[in-house]
Amino acid sequence: MEILLMRHGKTAGNIARRYIGVTDEPLCDEGIALARDSGICTETANVYASPLKRALETASIKFPNARLTIVKDLHEMNFGDFEGRSAAELEQDDAYIKWLDSQCTLRCPNGEGLDDFSDRVCRAFDGIVREAIERGDERLVIVAHGGSIMSILSRYGRPEQQYYEWYVDNCCGYRAQLDEESWDDSPVLTGCELFSTIP
Fold first, then answer.
1. What count of other Cβ atoms lies within 10 Å of the Cβ of residue 191?
2. Statement: residue 63 has pLDDT above 90
3. 85-133: per-residue pLDDT in tens?
4. For the structural domain made of 2-79+112-195, what CATH number should be given?
5. CA of 78: how far to CAs of 10, 67, 142, in Å?
6. Among candidates 117, 133, 149, 178, which has minimal Cα distance to 49?
7. Are 100 and 82 in contact (CB under 8 A)?
8. Using CA atoms in the order 36, 38, 40, 43, what is the torsion angle rounded to 10 degrees?
9. Per-residue pLDDT tens for 131-149?
10. Count of beta carbons in the 10 Å neighbourhood of residue 199
11. How do beta strands 173-177 and 190-195 pair?
12. Every domain of the chain and the residues it spans
């Protein structure tokens, strides 16, 4: 099965380099244009997406004929007290400094930690994969967030890389392959390749 993991288009918060996790921003004008210009696929039958506006809008633009299934646990990390703020605004915040020193793995105040976030997303991904296998799909498309994609690929992607090494820009993503017969015993995504337009 072919797997496409795509990040949503740009929002105003992305452009301002703010921590936009569970904040439900829509695409900005630049984000809409980028989503249109980076390829539209009219043949994809099913798309799974985060419930946040920026992912749903991106999925609707790029896969206009697909049946859209919302998966709550694909949403981005909850940055808690850091939500909506930039690194410059937080540079004197002791909790933020401590979080950075942990390589951003600690729980954000009133938010999530990296391990719990990744576990949530990967449980959701595994459920989607099993549903797609049962249905006999040849292609599985997910439109979500940078953190969601990094979580999935840092656990399942091959060749293995650390979480932040899987970073992806807006409206870009990774294409990979999945062996349906071995998913139970060896759940991996092979041949992971970065794309900037829909392959």
1. 14
2. yes
3. 999 999 999 999 999 999 999 999 999 999 999 999 999 999 999 999 9
4. 3.40.50.1240
5. 18, 27, 20
6. 149
7. no
8. -160
9. 999 999 999 999 999 999 9
10. 11
11. antiparallel
12. 2-79+112-195
CA-CA distances (angstroms) from residue 88 to 24, 91, 102, 124, 164?
22, 5, 18, 33, 20
Question: How many whole angstroms separate alpha carbon 59 and alpha carbon 45?
Answer: 12
* Strand 173-177 relative to strand 2-7, pairing: antiparallel
CA distances to 81, 91, 152, 155, 196 from 174, in Å: 30, 32, 11, 14, 9
For every residue of the chain, which 3-state class applies, written as one string?
CEEEEEECCCCHHHHCCECCCCCCCCCCHHHHHHHHHCCCCCCCCEEEECCCHHHHHHHHHHCCCCEEEECHHHCCCCCHHHCCCEHHHHCCCHHHHHHHHCCCCCCCCCCCCHHHHHHHHHHHHHHHHHHHHHHCCCEEEEEECHHHHHHHHHHHECCCCCHHHHCCCCCCEEEEECCHHHCCCCCCEEEEEEECCCC
- Tell me the pTM: 0.96
Token representation of residue 85: 């703020």
The pLDDT of residue 55: 98
**Cβ atoms of residues 1 and 139 within 8 Å:** yes
**199 falls in which pLDDT band (50, 70, 90)?**
confident
